[in-house]
């Protein structure tokens, strides 16, 4: 496609491999938003990118990461999982997922332990997967309960922060690192 003007170039990503700009194409009265990349399959796209990088259309503005909504910040905090370390049992060290399903599973096991003073397995230990799928063995119900408490407190801290932020207050999401002893 033929174009007559390229304006307002700004990097569209942090890696600086795409550039957002406005392009006025021949036959169109108004400029249209356009993302230019070096590997655009259309000749005009890669040409515009090369011209932008060479400075033909002025300085390219810096990439500005979009501001996350409170719900996105909350989801990101949970998706980062909980980094657990244990001074008494380093085999438990890992990053554990805390999605709503994971929370329910941890809570269910903790409730069973609280009622019956044993793991749901009926054995002396329970195996639990971290975020990467690595299995860790909790050798005592007390250690698992410390883990369950840490998960509950982290998730609650994230929920409380989200509520405060939605209310317009200043708050920070809690650190996702905990020592369970």
Topology:
Blueprint (H helix, E strand, L loop, with lengths): L2 E9 L6 E8 L6 E6 L5 H12 L15 H10 L2 E4 L8 E3 L3 H17 L9 E4 L5 E4 L2 H26 L10 E3 L2
What features would you describe in this structure?
- The protein is of the alpha+beta class.
- It folds into two domains: 52 residues, no CATH class; 110 residues, no CATH class.
- The protein contains four helices and eight strands; from the N terminus they run E-E-E-H-H-E-E-H-E-E-H-E.
- It has a three-stranded antiparallel beta sheet. Strands 5-4-8 form a three-stranded mixed beta sheet, covered by helices on one side.
- The longest helix has 26 residues.
- The N and C termini lie far apart (65 Å).
Q: Main beta sheet: strand number and arrangement?
A: 3 strands, antiparallel
Q: Considering DSSP H and I runs of 4 or more, what fraction of the residues is helical?
A: 25-40%
What is the number of beta strands?
8
What Rg is obtained from the alpha carbons, in whole angstroms?
Answer: 25 Å
Count the DSSP helices.
4
Structural class of the secondary structure composition? Answer: alpha+beta
Number of domain units: 2
Share of β-strand residues: 15-25%
Q: Terminal Cα separation, in Å? A: 65 Å
Compute the average pLDDT.
Answer: 96
Q: Strand arrangement, largest sheet?
A: 1-2-3
Order of helices and strands: EEEHHEEHEEHE
The gross shape turns out to be elongated
Low-confidence stretches: none
